[in-house]
Amino acid sequence: MRLSENQKIVGNLKQILKDYDYLEYDQARPNRDKGFEGLSVRVISDAERDVQVIVDICQKLKKTTGRNYFFSYGGSYTGTDNLEKVWSFFTLREIKHEKQSA
């Protein structure tokens, strides 16, 4: 049985995440939109983190798949927290360039 393209991309992301023991692919999140809307990752421990980690993962996935991605991130925080250090999830979405007709 051949893996779909989406399954291959998820597999690539899971392989990349092996280098980050405090992150895991969030299998439930993309399914709520009834489609392959994005790749969601969640923090599973209280590890110190930085947004640069998300940028690095995004670049590694681009290198592996040949596709461009953008990310969004978030989590629970107070006005005194630095969201760049306390995020608890992020989502990667493919940048799709569609040709526009004139």
Please, could you describe this protein's structure?
α1 (5-17) packs across α3 (51-65). With 102 residues, the protein is α+β, with helices and mostly antiparallel strands. It is globular and about 40 Å long. The chain has one domain: Hypothetical Protein Ta0175, Chain: A, domain 2 (Alpha-Beta Complex), CATH 3.90.1070. The protein has 4 helices and 4 strands.
What is the count of β-strands?
A: 4
Outline the biggest β-sheet: 4 strands, antiparallel
Question: Strand share of the residues?
Answer: 15-25%
Distance between the termini: 42 Å
Enumerate the spans where pLDDT stays under 50 for 5 or more consecutive residues.
none
Strand and helix order: HEHEHEHE
What is the top-level CATH class? Alpha Beta
Question: Could you say how many structural domains there are in total?
Answer: 1
Mean pLDDT: 85
Question: How do the helices and strands line up, and which of them pair or pack?
Answer:
Blueprint: H1 5-17, E1 23-25, H2 28-31, E2 39-43, H3 51-65, E3 69-74, H4 83-86, E4 89-94
Antiparallel strand pairs: 1-2, 2-4, 3-4
Helix pairs in contact: 1-3
